[in-house]
Design brief:
The protein has helices at residues 16-27, 42-59, 69-78, 93-96, 100-111, 122-128, 150-157, 179-191, 210-216, 231-238, 251-255, 269-282, 288-294, 299-314; strands spanning 2-9, 31-38, 63-67, 86-89, 116-119, 134-135, 164-168, 197-201, 219-222, 243-246, 262-264. By secondary structure, the chain is of the alpha/beta class. The protein has a six-stranded parallel beta sheet with strand order 2-1-3-4-5-6, sandwiched between helices. A five-stranded parallel beta sheet has the order 8-7-9-10-11, with helices on both faces. Helix 2 packs across helix 3.
Length: 315
């Protein structure tokens, strides 16, 4: 079986999420080519129509799998009249950022029927309004995201072992990730006198370095306003690191039954600080890896589900 992955990418680079999924399918015996839309804005998509159509015509693909809604719209246009079944993966903010995004996705799916639609959480399926959509989160590479010894990871990063370290696994300036709530919760705990906590944003960290950051942290926090199925939460789980999130995306489902992991019901500082204190008092590793495998979220498990869908739409 031969697939074409279509996605956007900064400066023509394939995102780690898309690359990881492609690699998991390669390990499952599926051939995968990548088409990356380079540049930003609608002009980049328009310029990509002709070269993408040429690649589809000459590539002899069994399935086109487009990631993110705008890439799916592009692939829908580029493949008009070509007999190649198409799957659209809607990833999160491409549906949740604006009220009209779900309406656009439903409209395009009706005009150019996608053989399958994949979303990352039940919340996304409800929002987009495509009842037949499969809920399939991105998988986690369990060979990359593994438990490591905390002290050695802290030494590698130059973190003070006399403090507690809380990791915010995103850029602090990204508004929807809600850095202010993480910061206010940490400040509240620090002023209580019980803790000396340092809060770290994850900026410019290479993909192969992220497991070190997760393992160096005493807790990971992600107080986002909305997400699809945040990869950072699943990666931290794979490293068995305590986590505190707000109730968004599939976090409640992912963290249920994981020791030292908590989901806030509100965006109030007091509640988030209390849950963070519990996570820090856990003072050890969680059973996150066990939970991920039980939920079928390891990358090889997700690859099996995708291959099954590819085979079914070819029938």
């Amino acid at each position: 079986m031969k697939l074409l992955f279509v996605s956007s990418g900064r400066q023509g680079a394939i995102s780690p999420t898309i690359r990881n999924q492609g690699n998991s399918l390669l390990r499952a015996g599926v051939e995968v080519d990548f088409y990356v839309i380079s540049g930003r804005g609608w002009k980049s998509y328009v310029k990509s129509i002709k070269p993408l159509r040429k690649q589809i015509k000459t590539g002899n693909y069994d399935v086109i799998h487009a990631h993110y809604s705008w890439s799916a719209y592009l692939a829908s246009i580029a493949s008009i009249g070509l007999q190649v079944p198409m799957i659209a993966s809607l990833m999160g903010n491409d549906i949740l950022d604006h009220w009209w995004y779900p309406l656009l996705a439903r409209t395009v799916a009706a005009i150019k029927p996608w053989k399958a639609v994949i979303v990352k959480s039940k919340e996304m399926r409800n929002r987009v309004g495509i009842k037949r959509a499969f809920v399939i989160p991105n998988g986690v590479n369990m060979d990359v995201f593994i438990e490591k010894e905390k002290e050695s990871c802290q030494q590698h990063l130059g973190w003070d072992s006399g403090k507690k370290h809380v990791l915010f696994p995103a850029t602090p300036t990204e508004a929807r990730k809600n850095w202010p709530l993480a910061e206010s919760a940490v400040n509240k705990l620090n002023t209580s006198g019980e803790y000396k906590i340092e809060l770290h944003g994850m900026v410019g960290v290479k993909n192969d370095e992220t497991p070190i950051w997760y393992n160096a942290a005493d807790a990971v926090v992600l107080p986002s306003y909305y997400e699809g199925s945040p990869n950072a939460v699943k990666e931290a789980l794979a490293c068995n690191t305590p986590i505190v999130t707000t109730d968004m995306g599939d976090c409640r489902e992912r963290l249920e039954g994981a020791d030292g992991c908590y989901v806030a019901n509100t965006y109030e500082t007091d509640e988030f600080a209390e849950l963070l204190s519990r996570a820090l008092r856990h003072n050890g590793k969680t059973n996150g890896r066990e939970r991920l495998i039980a939920d079928g979220i390891a990358d090889y498990q997700i690859a099996e589900r995708l291959v099954s869908i590819y085979k079914n739409i070819k029938k």
